[in-house]
Every structure is written in structure tokens, then in C-alpha cells.
Write a structure and sequence with these properties.
There is one protein chain. By secondary structure, this protein is mostly helical. It has two domains: 122 residues, Farnesyl Diphosphate Synthase; 198 residues, Farnesyl Diphosphate Synthase (Orthogonal Bundle), CATH 1.10.600. The chain is 74% helix and 1% strand. It contains 16 helices and two strands. A hairpin with a 2-residue loop joins strand 1 and strand 2.
């Protein structure tokens, strides 16, 4: 059976050979540029991986895998605008390389192109595939808005946060697996188990990312440590701190640390409190909880063990690489 590296090459080659259109160049060049920036291609690989769990011919899921990757990159184009981010994967973001109106319009077109690609899938379940895709697309947008709403709140609960990352980050991973499984001929029940695996694994990935932003090693993580702290991002760590700390420490955080202009002082002050209240340990336990839920769902999928092991090892390797 094909492993991650094999499936990565298949989808990467498909993207490399695709010309989305030529004119107007200002509209289509940004799409080709964005799709050429690479990345892990995790979501489209999961489409193909889920398909081969039930059918060795992964080519039948290639258009759907491509659609998922185009949609994912569409969200990144618009996220970069909302975040005022100058770089994406070490290269200029679309809106800085061209301009904001072009980035918005090209991003919009990527969403349409994604639907077009999905509709090329030869399956008697195309209506179901579109329903899964559209549901995930809506939920990703909902998750982004909820995340932005959190920026002005200091009372975000654990459950609200888990719901937000489930929408913003996890549902597309989950839908990728569900779509791939259905193309491969899986039962609705098995496709749902894979959806549940993907959603819980995605939550675990995001919690791990939260942990590494504060406690990872900068050269390994690939970004400056403490970025979430500097931006007052409502991560699981900050939410747990505000719930666990005593009255005086909470006042210090909400009235002083969150407004501290000295970056090093802010990061060190927050890390001191994270350690005092064992916030990292709490987050690690939560991450493990969702990983275990994911693997429990995978275990009951009705397919050969080799296929399940490939998916499980892929998730474990990705988690290890993150750390």
C-alpha cells in the first residue's frame, strides 16, 4: 500500500501539471503562485489515504484531493489578509506580492475552482461529497470568525476553544478523510469513523501547536517562540491560566501582562505563570485525550489493519515532527 511520501508525490505532481487558466493573468497567476508554495499537502494526502483503505485505485480520488488542497490554500490567501501576514512558507503572501483586491478576487476564484475540481470526481455519491465539502467550508469560516471574536474576550472557556479549533482547523482534515473513504466505497459508518478520527486528531495537532509556541525550541518549530503570547492569542494555555490562577495573578495578567510593550518581559512573565500553574501539563493531557479518541475511532473502521496502521503512523509522525 502507498504511504504518505508516495501519495504526496502523486498529488504534488498533479498540482504541478495543472494550469488553472491564463487570462486575465492578474487573476490566475496568484493562484498558480500560491499552489506552487508547497507545504505538507496533508489534507489531499488524507483524501488519497482514506480512499486506498477501501480501494487500491487512488486515482479516482485525485480530483477530490486536488479540490481540498485548492480550498485549503484559498483559506490561507484570505487568512494572510486578515492577519496582515507578509510571508507564507517563507515567500511573499499573495496580497503583498500583488495587492489586496487581487488577493481577495483570486481567493474567491480558488473556492470556485475547488468546487469545479470536486465535481469532476466520477462517483455515484457526488451529491454526498458536495454536502460534506460545503459543510466543512462553512464551518471553517465559522471557526475563523469565532477565533476573531475571541480577540476581545478574556472569558473564553475550554469548551468554546475546543469548538473553535474543531471548526477552524479540524473539520477540513475530517472531511478530507470522509470524502476519500466514500470515493473508495466505504460504508457511511466507516466514513464517519474516519471523520471522527480526523476531527479529534486535528484538535490534538492544534493543542500541540499551542504548546510548542510557548515551550518549543525556535529552530525546531520554525518560528519565534512566544508569538501567541505577544499577540494575546486565546490559546488553550492562556485560557487554562485565566481559569486556574488566583485572583491577584489573574488581575496581573488581564491588567498588566496582556498590555506589556516589552516583548521579552511579556513572554517571560507569561511563561513563569504557565509553569506556576502547570498549564503545559494540562495542555499535554488534553492533547493526549483527543489523540486517544482519534485512535479509538480508527480502530473500529472495517478495513485491513495495514491501511489503518499507515494512517495511524502518519498521524504519529506528524505529531513527532511538530515537536
Amino acid at each position: 500500500m502507498k504511504k504518505y511520501s508516495d501519495l504526496y508525490q502523486i498529488i504534488s505532481q498533479e498540482i504541478k501539471l495543472t494550469q488553472y487558466a491564463e487570462t486575465p493573468t492578474e487573476l490566475y497567476e496568484p493562484i498558480s503562485y500560491m499552489m506552487s508554495l508547497g507545504g505538507k499537502r496533508l489534507r489531499p494526502v488524507l483524501v488519497l489515504m482514506a480512499c486506498q483503505m477501501f480501494d487500491a485505485d487512488v486515482s479516482k480520488a485525485l480530483n477530490a484531493a486536488h479540490a481540498i488542497e485548492v480550498f485549503h490554500n484559498f483559506t490561507l490567501v484570505h487568512d494572510d489578509i486578515m492577519d496582515n501576514a507578509p510571508l507564507r512558507r517563507g515567500q511573499q503572501t499573495v496580497y503583498t506580492k500583488w495587492n489586496m483586491p487581487i488577493a481577495i478576487l483570486s481567493g474567491d476564484l480558488m473556492m470556485i475552482k475547488a468546487t469545479q475540481l470536486l465535481c469532476k470526481t466520477e462517483s455515484n455519491q457526488l451529491k454526498s461529497l458536495l454536502e460534506i465539502f460545503n459543510k466543512a467550508a462553512i464551518e471553517v469560516c465559522e471557526g475563523q470568525q469565532i477565533d476573531m471574536n475571541f480577540e476581545t474576550r478574556n472569558d473564553v472557556s475550554h469548551d468554546e476553544y475546543i469548538n473553535m479549533i474543531g471548526l477552524k482547523t479540524s473539520v477540513l482534515l475530517a472531511a478530507s478523510l470522509q470524502i476519500g473513504a466514500k470515493i473508495g466505497g466505504a460504508s457511511d459508518e466507516d466514513a464517519q469513523y474516519l471523520y471522527d478520527f480526523g476531527k479529534n486528531m486535528g484538535i490534538a495537532f492544534q493543542i500541540q501547536d499551542d504548546i510548542l509556541d510557548s515551550f518549543g525550541e525556535g529552530d525546531k518549530v520554525g518560528k519565534k517562540i512566544g508569538g501567541d503570547i505577544v499577540s494575546n492569542k486565546k490559546t488553550l494555555l492562556l485560557i487554562e491560566l485565566l481559569e486556574a490562577c488566583n485572583k491577584d495573578d489573574k488581575k496581573f495578567v488581564t491588567e498588566n501582562l496582556l498590555f506589556e510593550s516589552d516583548i521579552d518581559k511579556k513572554i517571560n512573565g507569561m511563561l513563569h505563570l504557565y509553569k506556576k500553574y502547570q498549564v503545559k501539563e494540562f495542555a499535554e493531557n488534553m492533547k493526549n485525550k483527543y489523540m486517544n479518541l482519534a485512535f479509538a475511532s480508527l480502530e473500529v473502521v472495517n478495513t485491513i489493519n495495514e491501511a489503518k496502521l499507515i494512517l495511524k503512523h502518519t498521524a504519529q509522525e506528524l505529531m513527532t515532527r511538530m515537536s
